[in-house]
Every structure is written in structure tokens, then in C-alpha cells.
């Protein structure tokens, strides 16, 4: 079983997140994708606008529209900052799946600042999806220490018994187009009374409207 783990504040979850997950799932033939909303994102200066319960509910709605997707509250039920190291460690303790942490190229460029780097890289393969403004080629220059781990989906065979003979996890670079969407812009649109239907799944847009999320939110 291959499992992609896609984390984020999801405030709200949007089409950029969904597209990244779908592209990684297709490129690596992942059996499942798990959406993991963060409780306290370590790299975010301000608290989430929506409650943990609302962000999980929106992730569940988005997951229900995709084959093999689920949402997990594993970070929402844990106190303190939501460190990827802790999440992957907990998931590995209860599953024999082969793990792939799905992440945008912009976020991966800051991987050296993460808690327990580089040990966090040993807990899963990292599926790095291209993002607007960040080329995957530039990642080799930004994190040269990881150049020997970098590969492409064509060269990586997740279903093989031993895809990494040297025992190292891989950083798999997925060149693909993803929409330039941000949760900040979505919240701005809601405050302005504008439509967000082109930025989020329809079920998420309906949830935001029904529960009057982000109305009057300052961030």
C-alpha cells in the first residue's frame, strides 16, 4: 500500500492543494492520499481563521470527491506545533504503508529550517510538486545536500520491492502545472463578498457560505 500524506493549514483547503495531491497520486500511482490539517503550523506567524473542526470538515468534504482520499485529525488532536516529524512517526507506528509526503516546491525549498532536519527526510519519500515561481531544477541549488536523493517519477518505482537499494528515501520532483491559488486570497474574497467558486471545491464553497466563515476575518 502506498500512501500520500498532504498536510497544510487548509484555511480553507483549495484547488491548489487538490491539484498537487492529484498530480502526485497520478505520477506515483499512490493507492491513497491522506489530507492532514495542521493545528499549529510552525512556519505560520498568525493563527488559523477557521476553527480546527471547520478546517477538518472542509478537508473531509474535499477528500470525499476524490478516489482513495481521506482526511485525518492526527495533528488537530495533538498539543503544540504540528511538526511533520511527529506526524510521520505516529503514522508509521500504526501502518505498514510506504509513505510519500506531498509538498509544494516553494515549501520544500525551506526544508532545512524544519524541526529535526535532516532526520525528517528518513521517515517518508518526499513528493515535491512544482509551484508557480519555483522551478524544481532550482531546488538542487537551494538544497545541494539532497541532490543525491532527487529523482523523477519515471525513475522511481514505488511498487517495486526495493525502490531504494541504498536505503535512503527519495525526493521525487514532479514537474506539472498547478493553479496559483492562496488561502489568503480566498479569505479576502469572502470578506469582499466575492465568489470563491473557481478557487475551491463546490462543497467547500458551500460550507464556507453556510457557516459564514471568514466574514470579517482580519487575516
Summarize the structure.
The protein has 219 residues and is of the alpha/beta class. The chain has helices at residues 15-28, 52-64, 84-94, 105-108, 136-142, 183-192, 202-210, and strands at 2-8, 32-37, 69-71, 98-104, 125-129, 150-151, 171-174.
Note the main attributes of this structure:
alpha/beta, 31% helix, single chain, 219 residues, Rossmann fold
Q: What separation lies between the terminal Cα atoms? A: 39 Å
CATH homologous superfamily label: HUPs
**Beta-strand residue fraction:** 15-25%
Number-wise, the strands total 7
Walk me through what this model shows.
By secondary structure, this protein is α/β, with parallel strands linked by helices. The chain has a single domain (2-180), classed as Rossmann fold. It has seven helices and seven strands; from the N terminus they run E-H-E-H-E-H-E-H-E-H-E-E-H-H. The protein has helices at 15-28, 52-64, 84-94, 105-108, 136-142, 183-192, 202-210; strands at residues 2-8, 32-37, 69-71, 98-104, 125-129, 150-151, 171-174. The chain has a seven-stranded parallel β-sheet, with helices on both faces. Helix 1 (15-28) links the parallel strand 1 (2-8) and strand 2 (32-37). Helix 2 packs antiparallel against helix 7 (202-210). The longest helix is centred in the first third of the chain and has 14 residues, at 15-28. The chain is globular, with a radius of gyration of 17 Å. The protein starts with a strand and ends in a 9-residue tail after the last helix. The model has no long low-confidence stretch (mean pLDDT 91).
